[in-house]
Design brief:
By secondary structure, the chain is of the alpha+beta class. The chain has 2 domains: about 15-210, Alpha-lytic protease prodomain-like; about 220-300, Alpha-Beta Plaits. Helices cover about 60% and strands about 10% of the residues. The chain has a 4-stranded mixed β-sheet with strand order 1-2-3-4, covered by helices on one side. A hairpin with a 2-residue loop joins strand 3 and strand 4 (about 295-300). The protein is elongated.
Length: about 300
């Protein structure tokens, strides 16, 4: 059976995110140096500890950048999907690292309930505000596509979390300087942890699902099934599978049992186009069966 492969142009703004990662990493390395220097000058263990935490975020950004870069490498005979799954691995790693970091903050906050510690002067507050600015700017670099790409969401959440933590330090510092209420510090810390945990848990859940080839959250499986079975040429369908090749690319395979006298050459191309345009399926492999006998297999995106 003849078919007309459809070619779709998927524009991935690689250079944009290469710049975003480079700028974000540069800004955060600069902030780590500031925190370390002023931590020594102010004798603040808190600033030195946070400098170490922000250094881990630099490593997190490097991980996400590396996965983003590898996902763009061409496929090969040994890796027919290339390194696209690296973005899923990076996002699940980012979620785990974030949860560990939040656990450390909770541990420190609980300890401060028992032994309250004053904020180490105005220096710490000023440095924290610088952290708010730098981390917010970095988070904004990844804000646009963080709802569509888990790897980008991981980078965004890391930076948003740091901005929130720095803001909490600054607010707690001002309140403590004005009132002397040392308990404000751990209370604000726990509140910020709770807010960040909501987003981080979603990142971990979605990343884990993609790692075991579950259907991506944005895919309308009932809609796809209804569309295919409602085609006038299609008698029934079976072996319908949808999975993520990467955090941005979704694949589908399905067997269609078609009515012989309604079969036409345009069927496969039309289905592939509709799956792409309506249901965000980038790679569709469709096998046609007539009277229980396999007739044709169609994968227009196979390279």
């Amino acid at each position: 059976m003849n078919s007309n492969p459809m070619t779709h142009n998927h524009i991935h703004n690689t250079s944009h995110y290469n710049r975003a990662f480079a700028i974000g990493i540069g800004l955060n390395i600069f902030f780590v140096i500031i925190e370390a220097v002023y931590g020594v000058l102010a004798g603040s263990l808190a600033l030195l500890a946070d400098a170490g935490h922000n250094l881990s975020d630099v490593l997190g950004l490097l991980l996400a950048w590396g996965a983003f870069y590898l996902s763009k490498k061409p496929v090969s005979d040994t890796r027919t999907y290339g390194f696209r799954k690296m973005t899923v691995m990076a996002s699940i790693t980012s979620a785990i690292v974030l949860l560990l970091a939040l656990g450390g903050i909770v541990w420190e906050a609980v300890g401060r309930f028992n032994q309250p510690q004053p904020i180490a002067g105005m220096t710490v507050i000023v440095v924290a505000l610088i952290g708010v600015l730098i981390n917010t700017l970095t988070a904004l670099l990844f804000m646009k596509d963080q709802h569509h790409d888990l790897n980008i969401r991981g980078a965004f959440l890391h930076m948003a979390a740091d901005a929130g933590i720095s803001l909490g330090v600054a607010i707690a510092g001002f309140v403590i300087l004005q009132t002397g209420w040392l308990i404000v510090d751990p209370v604000i810390s726990l509140f910020i942890v709770f807010i960040i945990l909501l987003g981080t848990w979603g990142l971990l859940r979605d990343s884990f699902n993609l790692s075991i080839d579950a259907v991506p959250e944005n895919i309308d499986m009932p809609g796809i099934r209804h569309y295919l079975i409602s085609l006038p040429q299609v008698q029934t369908i079976h072996d319908l599978h949808v999975w993520a090749i990467s955090t941005t690319v979704t694949a589908l395979s399905v067997h269609l049992v078609v009515i012989v006298d309604k079969l036409d050459n345009q069927l496969l191309a039309d289905i592939q186009k509709q799956l792409h345009d309506r249901y965000s399926i980038e790679h569709a492999t469709i096998q046609i069966e007539l009277s229980g006998q396999p007739l044709a297999e169609f994968d227009p995106d196979c390279h």
